Design the sequence.
């Protein structure tokens, strides 16, 4: 008889917890116009996740904790096109000045916040994000954004591989379809990251007093 | 009404093809004893995928095409333990001489084949694999191994991010549970890699004549 | 008696040759206004190296071979400041729109050429340059730019580490001072890269006929 | 009239200081038998630097601060040979069990210390060293080893690029020839790292009391 995935993973010792370290950064993955619109590359649930993120971003800004945003940006004339654009040509529309590639108004970066322009799935891949986190003495990342099964998943795996204690904020990530969202939340929680709600994270950070944040 | 994931992905332009380039490498991810045993970290379907891989490995060896194997190897005394072992302590058993961390006998590496010892999910992460592929003029990777939702997925994403045309060999990858296997095959095929059977790959390589391989 | 460096390096087997592979890219490191001006961060010899590079760039453009330029670009409000700016605060002036950080007019990139914005010494460090070279099937890099002892040296070391056959174009690199230039040319030639004049490179590429380039 | 390098670098704002952060790691680069022997790839001054390092290593061990060693190790049958071995064939002798590639007896790693096997110049390149430093909450690296103009320089540049405050221990680094040693000490101090004597570092760490180390 086939065993349920939960039973198998539990038996083999997955699903552990990495917890919080000493200092958190908030990483907002690809909350851009093109990904909150179901008619482009997004969905309504992504738009909701963006709305949910406003409170968390404000929380981080008030405490002057490190915040990084990512956007997908490709050259108009294709100089940095790659295997990703070969497979998903729709990505080519995300050029520097295109409406689709601008970060949504409600999460607009401050001039003091890092904005990473990437051409891959992971926020960490060839972007220097991990080195920026080193400079800011961060050991814990909170990851929000879209899509759960795409750039969020890729960023979460890399965040753990770079040895950051990694937390996926469950109500601030979303996908263009429900099934991949659910499947990837399972994978991430079993292997790579803690999964916590926005509320429980803020309570936890409050309870840590001045230290974290 | 909620739309089916296939409908949404097709409408938004996912599911493209990257195809073959000029020169392939075969990358065998974590086919070690510990991952083919359901009582340890594996499953029967992973054992079957390993058996299926024998023919493909022979095909590559006969043509003297580049072959790389990966193993997960941690230090006995913990010097290279990391967030991954913090979350999945069972990985600590995979030490240099442990039975669990040896590559399965039927796929035993030749002394001329690259064997990568890794401490993360991706075969590419901090291992120099992409640089080795550069040295061997490879532009196309065939990925086999386990688990589909773990190290295979992470390796496939990185392979594409490094701009290799990436092909997941459908009958030579497997997982410890069926549902994550299926979900990750969908994600990879939609976004990161072509999915082909072993047979269709070998036929394709034959048909390309002397060139590839 | 102290031995001469040339004697020691020769005896120990340094100074080998890596030669040309099948396909070259031209990488122009930091030929920006701020580095050709002795009153800013540059020197006259850097201005001369930039002039010498015009012919080589034209040669590459005529053959439609891959060309990449780098600029150092820091955020106006400091979001991506790092240990480099901590040590060399003058670098902070190199912002997106500053005159100092624009590529010199005579080497102005075409819209089809890759322009990398970096915050470190190496053109490869966290920039995705190696992945772009993979996409363009490059196995050989020609490196020009400034400064020899700074970003050129760092880029050359990384180019070799990524397994590109690396060639420093001797008349198209320069430094703000002669002594570091000479010392670094010695180091690079002994360990990391072939050193060739522009003329000998172009003759070599001609003689290879249609293949390279 | 040509200006002296010191004058030029000072005028243009180089030679700054990055100092100490909160937590140091000691990184011993390539102190292996083959590099302390003038008849192989080394010199007497490298043997002296190794002797000088014993006290510093003891200091770090007593305080249980992170220590990492590197060795160059190539496969006997050449599976991981690369452009470096193409240029410097003598490196191929440095195999896993070769006397030349063993760390010198007086600095023999403890089983709890990280030992990195590398095939490139930089201790950081494709080795996961930066991720290990992240796991151990390190923000400051002390670099010792050999050779100054080779693997030390490459490691120091990468250490700074990864945003570690980097300190070269002046009496614990050496080269196979004096001139490249001196030239690279200048370059590193001007651009990438603080240069301090072993004694001044230990005094500084003492004065910081319990905090650092």
Sequence:
């Amino acid at each position: 008889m086939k065993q349920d995935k939960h039973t198998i993973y539990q038996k083999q010792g997955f699903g552990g917890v990495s917890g919080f370290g000493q200092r958190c950064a908030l990483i907002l993955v690809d909350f851009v116009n093109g990904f909150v619109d179901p008619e482009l590359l997004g969905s309504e649930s992504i738009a909701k996740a963006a709305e949910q993120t406003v409170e968390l971003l404000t929380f981080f800004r008030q405490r002057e904790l490190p915040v990084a945003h990512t956007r997908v940006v490709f050259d108009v004339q294709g100089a940095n096109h790659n295997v990703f654009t070969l497979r998903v040509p729709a990505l080519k529309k995300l050029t520097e000045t295109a409406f689709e590639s601008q970060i949504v108004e409600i999460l607009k970066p401050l001039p003091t916040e890092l904005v990473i322009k990437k051409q891959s799935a992971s926020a960490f891949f060839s972007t220097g994000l991990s080195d920026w986190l080193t400079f800011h003495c961060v050991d814990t990342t909170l990851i929000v954004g879209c899509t759960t099964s795409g750039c969020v998943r890729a960023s979460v795996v890399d965040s753990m591989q770079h040895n950051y204690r990694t937390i996926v904020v469950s109500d601030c990530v979303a996908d263009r379809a429900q099934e991949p969202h659910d499947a990837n939340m399972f994978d991430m929680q079993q292997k790579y990251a803690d999964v916590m709600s926005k509320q429980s994270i803020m309570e936890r950070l409050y309870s840590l007093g001045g230290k974290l944040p």
Summary: Chain C touches chain D through 51 residues (CB under 8 Å).
